[in-house]
Amino acid sequence: MIRLIRSVVALTALGMILSSCASFPTNPRLNQYDKSKGYRYGLLDKSDNGDDLFIILTFSGGGTRAAALSYGVLEKLNDTVVKINGEERNLLKEVDVISSVSGGSFTAAYFTLKGPDMLKADSPFRDNFLYKDVEGILKGKLFNPYNWGRLLSPSFGRIEIAQEVYQDLLFGTATYGDLGRRKPFLMVNATDMAKGSQFTFIQSQLDPMCADLDPIPIARAVAASSNFPVAFTPLALNAYPTTCKYVEPDWTKTALNDVENNPRRYYRARALRTYQEPDRKYVHLLDGGVSDNIGLRGPLTAIRSGDVAWSILNKINLEEIKKLVIIVVDAKNQSVPDFDQKPSAPGLISIVNTIATTPLDNNSADTIELLRDTFRRRADAQKMQPDLYQAELYRIYIGFDQIKNEQERQKFLDMETNFNLPRDQVNDLRRIGGKLLQRSDCFKSLTGAPMDPGKPVCPY
Amino acid sequence: MDEFIKVIFTTRRKVFVDGNPAGFTNKMFQVETGQHKFDLGPEKDYTPVEQIIDVVGTTPLDPMIIHFTDEKEES
Question: pTM for this structure?
């Protein structure tokens, strides 16, 4: 016992000494703004995966539940072959963009880094993450006296410890520079605390900050994306505004003239400007779910606007995309609370949980509807006007509400949000992800699978 | 909201909207509602050099028509 106390005291003392030098890892400055360098969609290699069939995946938040559901979708895509220009192609190899939030970011980032090897039975992603008690490891680190001292430093927080854990378990020291130039384009989303808007780990987001994305570890982006408020501390990035000869894109000038006709675009331009303010030396990030818990906002803007560097609207106008496929993987749960069965007021945890999750769920539902509306209007316009380029549009939504059997549906809706799910639940999630994708009418239409008679093809 | 544009020119060229290639001349295409800067791809043998226009209230059946003039034709 005395030996244990001595060890704790020694470790705490060591930690306190280290606290004087503990700080979050500094991300380097971008020496010179240059659109021909850095992690950008336009610079990716298209020789094996062109834009004519353009597949976007969005992975929602929801801890291991979200990671396993999206993993099941990747497995199904890997098992699916489509004919493109007479040639049989594995659908997983046709994925162009993955946009992710929180728990979904683990799957998205690991797949982008490792490719289809991630789906092999001996992949570390299964044993080191999906089936692992990651939450227990995180708690163990936080209760380790060695870390208490480090945590005393005002610039070293619980999120830095989470990043170290994710590096040890999955990502190692891999950085954005290690992703190379192969597709898919990875969009890991967090939330900018100061603006309350989405922050995406791509170079065009970091350009106005004059920060270089390439040396930033993948584990750091994933930690920012899954940085659940209060449980973790906000994650800081260094910014070096006005030091890299950044040139604002042309659209910001016209957008800032036009709050009346398009306020959404005006606010996008305003948000971009805030990163150029000379006093903004740091950007503090929270969980991506705070601004968009399904990772769909970024792709949606690219579908609706020509302003985005990888604008899908422009690619359609330029007749580069023949088929546009967007698969939204939403691991939203909805357990039935028991407080309506009692007269007493719900407890603090129930109240905080409601406050934290209800706006996110409502926002996600609105975003999904916005996507549906965007596709429907484009499809209607194409029908009305043959002079408009005729793109094929496929919108596929994967969510537990689509499970027909009530008992099975509730089983998934009841699953908790954490990083420690029982093995059988993870297996169930993998299975249902693939099953829901395969059952989608729009997916059947895309892959040429037999359709149910009388059902509309890809309804909007 | 969605807006619909047709840029008229003597030959098929890329149309640049706010500096990005966003469509072709003489073929209808879609843009986001709001103010945009329009110009054509190289070479710069047309007038005006660029046009800044508020694009609002168009439909697929009633698109906004924007004209650029070929300098050679003009002379």
Answer: 0.93
